[in-house]
Amino acid sequence: MRLNKYISETGLCSRRVADALIAEGRVTINGKPVELGQQVGEHDDVRVDGKPVIGRTRGAAHVTQRVYIALNKPVGITCTTERHIPGNIVDYINHPQRIFPIGRLDKDSEGLILLTSNGDIVNEILRSENNHEKEYIVTIDRPVTPQFLHGMSSGVRLPELGATTKKCRVEKISGNTFRIVLTQGLNRQIRRMCEAFGCKVRRLQRVRIDNIKLGALKSGYWRNLSEDELRELLPQRTVW
């Protein structure tokens, strides 16, 4: 098995992050430095920063039961695996397995975020060309006008990111509140889009990622995804 896949299956990090750790010289096999693309056997001693990488079932043909979680993230929790950062999402959930968030939801936002111990699926969900939908309910500091809705849905130029947002679906819910469905995830995208129209976001809540809905899940609580939800979320995969 390739080393980056081995590390990702323990839940420590994604394959991309594993490649970065390997390139930085922070990974060893049986006490020796490794290279990108190196193979690893089930009886090898793999370590990151000198600490054993655990999580695989030694001598067995399967991996420890993988974890897939939907969390209703409260405002103030940071989507990072860096344990030294106060309010990090990993310590907040305190799951017995190593898990990490799929994508981000900024500290000032709330709502649905997925977490997993399976690094293999992260890129599949985050890749913009896969057009995974993310739905948000947003409240701004002024009334939602037809001009605002048209401008937001048509694509917004964000000079600070050097990008123009993809066309998206936007609809008014009430006076200052609207619903928006995105298929990309630029840094603080919705807040930046609103700022382009002179508006400030007062509340931002994600309520759906593809077929996974926030529903009645209370703020601060999480649940495991069902097999049916995983099959619909990742229809091309036979193993999760």
Work out the number of β strands. Answer: 15
CATH class of the largest domain: Alpha Beta
- Average residue-wise pLDDT: 88
- For this structure, what is the CATH homologous superfamily of the largest domain? Alpha-L RNA-binding motif
Strand content is: 25-35%
Q: Number of helix segments?
A: 7
Q: Briefly note the structural class of the backbone.
A: alpha+beta
Distance between the termini: 17 Å
Low-confidence stretches: 56-63
Q: H/E order of the elements?
A: HHEEEEEHEEHEHEEEEHEEEH
In the CATH classification, which architecture of the largest domain applies? 2-Layer Sandwich
Account of the protein in words:
The protein is an alpha+beta fold and 240 residues long. It has 3 domains: 3-52, Structural Genomics Hypothetical 15.5 Kd Protein In mrcA-pckA Intergenic Region, Chain A (Roll), CATH 3.10.290.10; 68-123 and 215-233, Pseudouridine synthase I, catalytic domain, N-terminal subdomain (Alpha-Beta Plaits); 133-209, Alpha-Beta Plaits. The chain has helices at 3-9, 15-23, 89-93, 122-126, 146-154, 189-196, 227-233, and strands at residues 27-29, 32-33, 46-48, 51-52, 68-73, 100-101, 110-116, 134-140, 157-158, 163-164, 169-174, 177-182, 201-209, 212-213, 222-224. The strands form 3 sheets. Strands 5, 6, 7, 8, 11, 12, 13, 14 and 15 form a 9-stranded mixed beta sheet that branches. A 4-stranded antiparallel beta sheet has the order 2-1-3-4. Residues 56-63 have low confidence and may be disordered.
